[in-house]
Design brief:
Rossmann fold; Dna Ligase, domain 1; D-amino Acid Aminotransferase, Chain A, domain 1; 15 helices; binds adenosine-5'-diphosphate
């Protein structure tokens, strides 16, 4: 089925019951992206903003806008009461959390449901299950999804040495509630283990208010491969193929592509099937992503994200499925009107995450955007909230634009990405566009073979010497 056919199918059949007004509990490009999906479906929107964000682009497109508090995230975008009050005042009947902020907070999802509103996301129990990586790993094992050899349970300074003997070195200590690459420590030898456990616990307590850590084998040359899924909450689930997100810095994705290139077809078919099975077993509702490390022809589950991901557009390009629209349809009780055989992969897509940061030091670079020009042409999509004169506040994430490029194959997608990166203009603030141009696209290794998760940092290290 072509993307056009899928699109018209999902947009012309707005059977009842359908949501009337959605509050978007987020900011930046994803708020604009969600507002766009709501418009497509004919649903009214409420935008929320902090006092630092009154000039956000999506506030011009929503039907109503309401301030939810001061600039500090904890007082606004992370303030459950403020967001619920905004929903009540505006008469919204559902809340879309986007990514980051409260999107994987089970308490938030519960509070929304207790207020008689619809949470556009999974059931709170699944957010909680997957939000703790130790319980996520054990759920995956039950569904036959392969996991990284590891402790499988929480560890402390008392049992770390014993557990490490079973795993071997190098190993990685990880925060059970971790996210954003925080609370991880790579340990090369036994002598360093206790200190690593304690410092990971401290970081985990500080960031996640939960000092639980666990350990697993540190894989030395894996790729990061992930699978996008959709479930209707009643046992029907499909996958939307895979993505490769191996180009990372500090365990954070820099560039993503779909499908993951050069995967052995058997292993790929097995892992896609395993993810669908896990969703069916859980009766998973909404969009989700299973993340794996892939090494020596084997997949190892590392975590599941129970929300829309930053990199979802590359999957939309190759499948023609509007993932945010599907989230809204499922949450509104319309089910999942797609079968696995409807999902046909077409071509290759690449996303460059463009951040307001110094390309050499990676320090954030907030400030006024004096010039913004989005590139165009066949297969080029730019998801961004920037405009000339917009002032990027210092208090939030540095992601300012996503350049997404689709082509009939990987070579075409790469050539188009290179051309789009030449054309894009963002002036007034520093960005990582030079990094994308120089390190990634000119790099002959990236162009010809799959890279592993450590390659980008190794290259950056060589360059800085
Ligand atoms: P977070 O939730 O903080 O993003 P993840 O568990 O998703 O943490 O891991 C993020 C990244 O950290 C992975 O993509 C990979 O680069 C690295 N990583 C995590 N676990 C391992 C491991 N066992 N071996 C090697 N690298 C790992």
């Amino acid at each position: 089925m072509s993307s056009q056919a899928l699109h018209s199918e999902t947009t012309t059949t707005l059977e009842k019951p359908f949501l009337r007004k959605i509050l978007i509990a987020n900011r930046g490009e994803i708020a604009l992206r969600i507002a766009r999906a709501c418009r497509t479906l004919g649903i009214k929107t409420v935008g929320v903003y902090s006092t630092a964000d009154s000039e956000l682009m999506h506030l011009r497109f929503v039907d109503e806008a309401i301030c939810i508090g001061p600039s500090a995230s904890k007082d606004s975008y992370l303030n459950v009461n403020a967001i619920l009050t905004a929903a009540e005042l505006t008469g919204a009947d559902a809340i879309h959390p986007g990514y980051g902020f409260l999107s994987e907070n089970a308490h938030f999802a519960e509070a929304i449901e207790n207020a008689g509103l619809v949470f556009i996301g999974p059931r709170p129990e699944h957010i909680r299950l997957m939000g703790n990586k130790v319980s996520a790993i054990s759920a995956m094992k039950k569904s036959g999804v392969p996991t990284v050899p590891g402790s499988n349970t929480a560890i402390t300074s008392d049992n770390a040495i014993d557990e490490s003997l079973k795993i071997g070195f190098p190993l990685i200590v990880k925060a059970a509630s971790g996210g954003g690459g925080r609370g991880m420590r790579i340990v090369l030898k036994s002598e360093d283990l206790i200190e690593a456990v304690q410092s990971a616990q401290n970081e985990a307590r500080m960031w996640f208010n939960d000092e639980t850590v666990y350990m697993e084998r540190f894989l030395q040359t894996p790729r990061h491969v992930e699978v996008q899924v959709l479930g209707d909450g009643a046992g029907h689930a499909i996958h939307l193929y895979d993505r490769d997100c191996s180009l990372q810095r500090r365990h954070q994705k820099v560039l993503e592509e779909a499908p993951a290139p050069n995967l052995p077809e058997n292993a790929r078919a097995d892992i896609l099937a395993a993810c669908v099975r896990a969703c069916q077993d859980m009766q998973y509702r909404g969009a989700g992503t299973f993340e794996f490390l892939f090494e020596n022809n084997q997949y190892f589950f590392i975590e599941m994200n129970t929300r829309v991901q930053v990199e979802h557009p590359v999957t939309e390009c190759i499948t023609g499925v509007d993932i945010v629209e599907q989230q809204i349809r499922i949450a509104s009780g319309l089910g999942l009107n797609l079968q696995q055989e409807d999902i046909v992969e077409r071509g290759h897509a690449i996303e460059c995450r463009i951040n307001a940061e110094d390309p050499k030091t990676f320090a954030p670079s907030p400030g006024k955007v004096t010039q913004f020009h989005a590139p165009g042409g066949a297969g080029v999509r730019v998801d961004s909230h920037l405009y000339n004169g917009y002032v990027i506040p210092h208090c939030y994430d540095s992601l300012i634009a996503k350049l997404i490029v689709h082509g009939k194959d990987r070579a075409t997608a790469l050539a188009r990405t290179r051309q789009a990166l030449d054309e894009i203009i963002i002036e007034g603030v520093k960005t990582n566009i030079p990094l994308h141009r120089d390190v990634i696209l000119v790099d002959h290794v990236f162009n010809h073979q799959a890279v592993d998760i450590h390659d980008l940092e190794k290259r950056l290290l060589v360059e800085s010497v």
